[in-house]
């Protein structure tokens, strides 16, 4: 039984995800139902140089890894875009991301990544493989969405999302009114980072604001 390109993509993506949390064995692949993976399918993917097997452990070849890396990057960037910019719910977001990952070009992915400010994680906390645009990010590329602490004095922006693994930090930011949708204005960045949220002036550690992503207002 031969798999379509999309079905091969799904198997390679499954291997990548499995490798993120541990090892992947032949028996793990045989549990995949969509597409249905059989012993013959595994052997064919090995023969076609998508993966190789050492002592029952499955690994991606360079060819397979390049394909899987692009798919994973596309899927997780799409999730980020749908969640942070379009505010699409989790279920339709996942379904659409699964469809888009097979057709987005490298150029489209770099454009999305730059738009979002080169995020490092998807909404579920999984690593987003960086692209060529991420390596150029330190040059004169100005993302549409950026960490709040990159704003200059006098600039105004709207908070798009907050991404932090520290629950205490998230609670503190929420208590201060730093939540998605709020408009903030930076009064000064040194010696303390002072910004206005609503009618309140706040002095906050710039490191904390690295977790707050904003869309800068044009001309302000």
Could you explain how this protein is built, in words?
This protein is of the alpha+beta class and 220 residues long. It has 3 domains: 5-60; 66-135, Orthogonal Bundle (Arc Repressor Mutant, subunit A); 145-216, Roll (SH3 type barrels), CATH 2.30.30. It is 40% helix and 18% strand. The chain has 8 helices and 8 strands, in the order αααββααααββαββββ. It has helices at residues 5-21, 26-29, 39-47, 62-84, 90-100, 106-115, 132-135, 167-175, and strands at 51-54, 57-60, 145-147, 156-162, 183-188, 193-197, 200-204, 212-216. The strands form 2 sheets. Strands 3-8-4-5-6-7 form a 6-stranded antiparallel beta sheet, with no helix packed on it. Strand 1 (51-54) and strand 2 (57-60) form a beta hairpin. Helix 1 crosses helix 4 and helix 4 (62-84) runs parallel beside helix 6 (106-115). The chain is elongated.
Draw up the topology in text.
Blueprint lengths: L4 H17 L4 H4 L9 H9 L3 E4 L2 E4 L1 H23 L5 H11 L5 H10 L16 H4 L9 E3 L8 E7 L4 H9 L7 E6 L4 E5 L2 E5 L7 E5 L4
Antiparallel strand pairs: 1-2, 3-8, 4-5, 4-8, 5-6, 6-7
Short précis:
By secondary structure, this protein is an alpha+beta fold.
